[in-house]
Amino acid sequence: MPVTASDPVEYVLRVGDESLALNALIGHPISLEFTGTIRCIHCDRSTRKSFGQGHCYPCFKRLAACDSCIVNPEKCHYHEGTCREPEWGETHCMTEHVVYLANSSGVKVGITRASQVPTRWVDQGAITAVPMLRVATRQLAGFVEVACKQHVADRTNWRTMLKGEAPPIDLEAEKRHLLGVIQEELAALRQQHGDDAIREVTEECVSLSYPVQVWPDKVKSHNLDKTPLVTGRLEGIKGQYLMLDTGVINIRKYTAYEVRVRVQD
């Protein structure tokens, strides 16, 4: 779902060639019906199963965006000349990335392309986030993240995030502490890659709010593969989840699915 980081975040749902403004629909009954058709978001081939958030299996095996180093950026192999798509790697991986701390369900470390701030934080349902370092490449960001993961989580508890139970955290203090405990690792990386390859930043902490009327007491997840028709009153949106009174649904998971959306007054 495309987003605008306003207060609260504005969400749009793309359905075919149409764009549906979602914030205005909160409080209304809606239905999502999976037709049974899945089409690859890259080649438009019909596929029985979606791989890598919307791809057919041949594209999943061929595209750089689906390579394992996207999940584990420290394993980037561009420099070895084996990138699946070198030109894609140049624009997506060999470019400035941000290492950040965010609070979605508790403090976590993450990385993203500089151009994806603050969209990445919204996707994760963060209520606060702060840039920590700017680094020259995705792989180098991955090396820094590996060092940080020894001291702080790198995952979001999506159930806690959707229940609105993230505790208040002083991310500026967490940032200062974490930079202190990984100084040796940063020094080693700067010695190898150059001082300018890793830069500490003083950018301010960002706060984000979401259009939620009712937080769920229990988080039940809808699955279009098992239940093709999902109905309920839209009570909120956070991260990439629609929060219905009947359960939540991760819209990103169904990117390649053909779905009919109906809204009732």
Question: Explain this structure to me?
Answer:
- The strands form three sheets. The chain has a five-stranded antiparallel beta sheet with strand order 12-11-10-4-13, with no helix packed on it. Strands 5, 6, 7, 8 and 9 form a five-stranded antiparallel beta sheet that branches.
- The mean pLDDT is 94.
- With 265 residues, the chain is an alpha+beta fold.
- A hairpin with a 2-residue loop joins strand 2 (10-15) and strand 3.
- Helix content is 23%, strand content 28%.
- It has helices at residues 57-62, 68-71, 86-92, 119-123, 138-148, 158-162, 171-181, 183-193; strands at residues 3-4, 10-15, 18-21, 29-38, 97-103, 107-113, 128-135, 198-200, 206-207, 229-238, 241-244, 247-250, 257-263.
- The longest helix is centred in the middle third of the chain and has 11 residues, at 138-148.
- The chain contains eight helices and 13 strands.
Tell the overall outline.
Answer: globular
Strand content: 25-35%
Instruction: Provide the low-confidence segments as ranges.
Output: none
Helix coverage percent: 10-25%
Main sheet makeup: 5 strands, antiparallel
- Based on DSSP secondary structure assignment, what is the total number of beta strands? 13
The overall average pLDDT, rounded, is 94
Order of helices and strands: EEEEHHHEEHEHHHHEEEEEE
**SS content category:** alpha+beta
Rg estimate, integer Å: 20 Å
Distance N terminus to C terminus? 22 Å
